[in-house]
Amino acid sequence: MKRQNLMKLFALLVAAMYMVVPAAFAEVAVPMLTNTAVTTIAVDDMVADLNDIALESDEADSAEAGMTPDSPFYGLDVAMDNIGLMFTFNKAKKAEKKLEIANERLKEAKMMAVANNLKAMEKAKIQHDAILLSAEEDIEAMNGNETEAIMSNIRIKSMLKVHNQEVADVEQELTLRVRGRFTVEQQGTLDAFIESMKGSSNSVEVKVQNKEEKIKAVVKRTRNLSDEEVDAEFENMDRAAAQEHLGDKAVDVIGQAKKSLESSDALIAKKQAEGKEVSYANDQRAEAEAILSEAEAALADGNVELATELAFKAKRMAVYAASGFSVEKLMNTPMRDDAEFMEMREQVRERMEERVQVRENINEANGSMIQVREEIREQIQERIDAGLNGSENGSSSEDSDGTNETSGNDSSLNTSVTGAVGGSSVGNSGNVIAE
User: Fold this and answer.
1) 40 Cα distance to chain centroid
2) pTM, 2 dp
3) Are 67 and 175 contained in the same domain?
4) Distance (Å, rounded) from C-alpha 284 to C-alpha 269?
5) Which of 65, 80, 237, 418 could form a disulfide bond with 108, CB atoms 3.0-4.6 angstroms apart?
6) Distance between CA atoms of 215 and 342, rounded to whole angstroms?
7) pLDDT digit string, tens, across residues 207-262
């Protein structure tokens, strides 16, 4: 009974230590330099008003992106996507799913860039580029009969065109919302991110085009058609596939473009009331409206692919109208590199150093905790040994008719018991307790 109580006491102590130690590993919060924490320089006031337009796209992106890279559960989100791909055995379907995932990663990266979390943005970018690279392999390995191969490639081509437009949208929005708020170094990271996104998407586009040429060659050979006949047939199939796969997207983007135009009207009117020059913004707004009219005409004519492309273009033009910037004017905006910003960077660096010191203290404290645990283990083992020694001494006294004649053998008896503790029976009990 005494030994059982000691075992319970030791178990309680160990449990208490394991409850305390994890709390010591809690990270020290370090402030991030977000856009709201940094004042803007050399940027027209209209850029700040772009948040009125951006809010809608942010909400849509958040719904599409789901878990973002700054979440501790982001790895689980990626793992679930990978598991879904593992159970998709058709190469064409797998490539299509990967394009959907790539679009999700694109939106995640954009959200992290807007939040000025470039580390998380880079994490999403890596996932985006990797999934597109993997999609290239699936496209290369696509097989099946002639009709299946043609339609699969056309579906992927349609999805890829939308993805390329989404990349262009992200490029514009990030350029407008963060340029002038980033340092030269940060802007360089952002530019590299955008180029990487476009490069990965273009690489897949080349792979799709090569696959289409191979399919055309097979069709031409097996059906004895001329190049012109094959091209005409593929053009008709492209148009039919676009109607099926891009119809809803065209309507959706046209709606987005209209909302962007309405927002630009409100912002232009606001700036005009403040006495600001808005002639250039009005010119861009008029061009956006003209392009949108072309998109609606193309949709009515059944040319969904052209309608989608024009709608994306009209939406971007409307956003430029709202900002009051042309691409050329925007790219000439100087990067942030002033004394105030450098001071804030230094403050963050100091906080980072503090976090490193805290981690070192935690490691040191954890080492001390392990040492204390070992000392407790030794003390409890000594008490167990002492209890066994007492039991053996009691037996010796009974054998000697109540006399203490065995006292002279205490030393050898203790040695014997210590040996027993190191042996199998008590030693095994010690292992169970420790665990």
Assistant:
1) 27
2) 0.60
3) yes
4) 14
5) 65
6) 57
7) 989 988 888 888 888 888 898 998 888 888 887 777 777 778 889 999 989 988 88
